[in-house]
From TrEMBL:
Belongs to the COMM domain-containing protein 3 family. This is COMM domain-containing protein 3. Residues 80-149 form the COMM domain. The gene is Commd3. InterPro entries: COMM, COMMD3. Transmembrane segments: none annotated. It comes from Origma solitaria. It holds the Pfam family COMM_HN. It comes from the Eukaryota. GO terms for biological process: sodium ion transport.
Length: 151
């Protein structure tokens, strides 16, 4: 969007806010299975002119089925981490056969969803500093949750 020559005179921050607002409107309409009259009424309340409302509704109607399929594939609840496994690995040589001796951790998160259906495990590699940062952030989150439940 930012590279579109028709939009080069618009402040990028305003353009990003407009894009986020339009995406939110489209997602909420799809989530609520809103009909064209409800969408039109909402956009009229936002002071959009009739021509833009008609254009928006036409495009929405053309893509409504695909949007509903996409929203249905996302699921309704976040994944739940059930287990974590890790292993230490050493990179001894790089592609140019230079010795590197760089340790890293391979972390695998076992996840499940309440929406049923299996999800692949989430795996990532990180350095010791990145892993320490992750552990620190998780501890901060746990402390915040503990404080919130004590109130």
């Amino acid at each position: 969007i930012l590279d579109d020559p028709d939009l080069k005179d618009i402040d990028p921050t305003v353009l990003k806010h407009c894009h986020a607002a339009a995406a939110t409107c489209i997602l909420e309409a799809g989530k609520q299975k809103a009909d064209i009259s409800a969408i039109s009424t909402c956009l009229e309340d936002c002071k959009l002119d009739k021509e833009r409302i008609e254009q928006f509704c036409t495009e929405y109607q053309k893509n409504k089925d695909a949007l509903e399929i996409l929203l249905g594939s996302i699921g309704r609840s976040p994944l739940h981490i059930t287990d974590v496994s890790w292993r230490l690995e050493y990179q001894i040589k790089n592609n140019q056969l230079h010795k590197t001796y760089q340790p890293s951790y391979l972390v695998t998160l076992n996840v499940e969803s309440s929406d049923s259906g299996s999800h692949p495990d989430i795996s990532f590699s990180c350095t010791m500093e990145q892993l320490q940062d992750l552990v620190g952030k998780l501890k901060d989150a746990a402390k915040s949750l503990e404080r919130a439940t004590q109130m």
